[in-house]
Amino acid sequence: MYAFSIRLLMMLSVLKLISSRTEFTNFKCHSLDTDFSEFEYCTLKAVNRSYKYISTKIILHKVPITKVKVKFGLYKKFSGYRPFLYNISVDACQFLKNQKTNPAMSYFYEFFRSASNMNHTCPFDHDIIVDKLSTEFFNHRITKILSFPEGDYMFEWHWIAYDITRAIVKLYLTLS
């Protein structure tokens, strides 16, 4: 029994040394209605081999915006991107009032909340900014909080204002 316990402890210590790594591979932003909103920038920046971040700024032309929905999907690459676990639609204004109503959406909202100025409820009467959201933050959430299997993923958000899809944002990443 003693030898088994020592082997188990050794295996666990080796497993702690093995860690997953998240890497952004692409970031795409597309405005479907440029009269309503447009992207000033949508960038994926590699500072060095290990530090990458994304930034975007959405200019809102018709403010205040009082009715927003978000359709979020998580896709994994299996000879093309296929739906993987989550396909969520929420009323963003209601969700921001009470984030406990949708735990899955809360998990994904936490990915960019600290790097964004979207931290209040409707109305939105200013441009939306996500600034320097790093792979390290994604890595922590995807490997430590809720583990995902290795592979290529796409996070896709459809931003819907007044029941019309206004913008689509896609973030591609690899978990290895």
UniProtKB/TrEMBL annotation:
Annotated signal peptide: 1-20
Highest taxon, organism lineage: Eukaryota
Organism: Drosophila rhopaloa
Annotated keywords: Signal
Full protein name: Uncharacterized protein
InterPro entries: DUF1091 (IPR010512)
